[in-house]
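Protein modeling request. Please complete all fields; requests missing the sequence field cannot be processed.
Requester role: graduate student
Desired output: 3D structure, token encoding
Chains: 1
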Amino acid sequence: MGSTAVILLVDDEPTSRQLMAALLSEMGYAVTSAASGDEAMRFLQSEEACHLLLSDVVMPGMSGVELARRSREARPGLRAVLVTGKAEGWRTALEEGALAMSKPVDRERLANVLADALGTPAMR
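Delivered output (124 residues):
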């Protein structure tokens, strides 16, 4: 990728969003955070760089699955990783063509999933 990958992190829960943003930054990624699917879509419709969408599945309003679907319309080819604590979230994420991760998120697993999604070596 040449430069630092920019990850759009979407989670309606402020503490989870802050902790994940800190972890991603610590791993060497540039992070832009959004508290909702609508906020994320405004970012994706801008000219700002974004290499990957990392979103919670269950959010009020627009779900992570719907966000992943709409993000591909706004930015064709953008990969999505959806994080879920529910089995049905996995199935829906995979049906939507996104990668899925279980909660709680493990740093090593996160590094591997992001590397796979971005086609880069794992950043730890």
